[in-house]
């Protein structure tokens, strides 16, 4: 597939057939005013910007290879280099903030905002907000829009960034609320993950396939790696990586207790490429080297 690369705010406005941007590194767009008449079926664009968008879409919206329905309205986030394929018949209402990475990387405060994990969520993991929550976010939006529309001065970047910080802090709170209100679905995913994890380490796959990573389990649960880790953290207090390491350590303890297999062989059986990596992880998690642990028991 060929992509239309959009790497700047001015290129984005040209692509949208939108008014001239008021700021070179950040813009607020009224999605209902975007001109989609020039698009062809199957067009896709790669957006090399951060975006925060509150959308209500009539029709489907393709993200990657999957189509989603946003008729009820949702808040979605994208990090740079995501491929989007809006249908030419889409009627979209709402707003979006597009931010060039240089705006956020200009100082440590901005860099911290790029660490919000929901910028790595898939579109089907978007945030569904109430009218009250939408009003809170739109207060921040209006402040950002006002600063962008004013003449730039030495305070502009700080004030825009302050309102972005506030908006994303609220988004983090609202995602926590969404995890809580979807407890049954979250617990179901947690149980399915635990079964997948147990199944992986009761079979002969570790020695053949190596240690599974977060993406391995996320793909089997049809989730993004970020969303799975955040969900598990909310419901279990541990990230996906921590769960994998704990299962590895449990299996290692069992082998150290019940067999005379060499430590190097146990490391290879668990999927470690180098025994030293196994020893380092085991000591970090238990406080003892594998050899010392075996002697203790």
Plain-language structure description:
This protein is an alpha+beta fold. It is built from 13 helices and nine strands. The protein has helices at residues 9-16, 101-104, 108-113, 131-149, 156-181, 183-202, 205-209, 214-220, 225-236, 240-258, 263-269, 275-286, 290-296, and strands spanning 4-6, 26-30, 45-47, 50-58, 60-63, 66-69, 74-78, 82-86, 91-99. Strands 1-3-8-5-6 form a five-stranded mixed sheet, covered by helices on one side. Strands 2-9-4-7 form a four-stranded antiparallel sheet. Helix 4 (131-149) runs antiparallel to helix 5 and helix 10 (240-258) crosses helix 12. It starts with a strand and ends with a helix. The model is unreliable at 60-71 (pLDDT under 50).
Outline the fold blueprint.
Elements: E1 4-6, H1 9-16, E2 26-30, E3 45-47, E4 50-58, E5 60-63, E6 66-69, E7 74-78, E8 82-86, E9 91-99, H2 101-104, H3 108-113, H4 131-149, H5 156-181, H6 183-202, H7 205-209, H8 214-220, H9 225-236, H10 240-258, H11 263-269, H12 275-286, H13 290-296
Parallel strand pairs: 1-3
Antiparallel strand pairs: 2-9, 3-8, 4-7, 4-9, 5-6, 5-8
Helix pairs in contact: 4-5, 6-9, 8-9, 10-12, 10-13, 11-12
What brief labels describe this structure?
alpha+beta; 297 residues
Task: Characterize this entry briefly.
Helices cover 51% and strands 16% of the residues. The chain is α+β, with helices and mostly antiparallel strands and 297 residues long.
Structural class: alpha+beta
Q: State the distance separating the first and last CA atoms.
A: 58 Å
**Alpha plus pi helix count:** 13
Helix content: 40-55%
Number of DSSP-assigned strands: 9
Q: Give the low-pLDDT segments.
A: 60-71
Please tell me how large the radius of gyration is.
23 Å
**Shape, please?**
elongated
What is the average of the pLDDT values?
A: 87
Order of helices and strands: EHEEEEEEEEHHHHHHHHHHHH
Strand order of the largest sheet: 1-3-8-5-6
Strand composition percent: 15-25%
Assembly level? single chain
Q: Largest beta sheet, briefly?
A: 5 strands, mixed
């Amino acid at each position: 597939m060929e992509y239309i690369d959009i790497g700047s705010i001015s290129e984005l406005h040209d692509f949208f057939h939108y008014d001239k941007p008021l700021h070179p590194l950040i813009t607020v767009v009224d999605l209902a005013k975007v001109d989609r008449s020039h698009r062809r079926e199957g067009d896709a664009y790669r957006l090399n910007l951060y975006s925060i968008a509150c959308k209500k879409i009539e029709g489907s919206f393709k993200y990657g290879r999957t189509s989603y329905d946003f008729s009820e309205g949702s808040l979605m986030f994208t990090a740079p280099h995501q491929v989007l394929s809006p249908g030419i018949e889409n009627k979209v209402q709402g707003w979006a903030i597009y931010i060039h990475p240089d705006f956020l990387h200009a100082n440590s405060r901005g860099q911290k905002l790029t660490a919000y994990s929901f910028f790595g969520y898939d579109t089907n993991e978007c945030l569904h907000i109430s009218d009250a929550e939408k009003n809170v976010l739109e207060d921040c939006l209006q402040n950002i829009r006002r600063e962008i529309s004013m003449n730039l001065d030495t305070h502009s970047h700080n004030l825009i960034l302050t309102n972005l910080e506030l908006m994303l802090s609220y988004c983090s709170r609202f995602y926590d609320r969404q995890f809580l209100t979807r407890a049954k679905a979250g617990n179901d995913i947690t149980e399915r993950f635990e079964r997948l994890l147990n199944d992986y380490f009761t079979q002969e796959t570790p020695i053949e396939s190596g240690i599974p990573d977060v993406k391995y389990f996320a793909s089997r649960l049809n989730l993004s790696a970020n969303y799975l880790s955040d969900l598990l953290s909310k419901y279990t207090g541990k990230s996906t990586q921590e769960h994998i390491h704990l299962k590895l350590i449990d299996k290692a303890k069992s082998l150290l207790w019940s067999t005379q297999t060499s430590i190097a062989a146990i490391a290879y059986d668990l999927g470690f490429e180098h025994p030293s990596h196994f020893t380092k992880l085991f000591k970090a998690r238990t406080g003892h080297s594998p050899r010392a642990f075996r002697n203790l028991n």
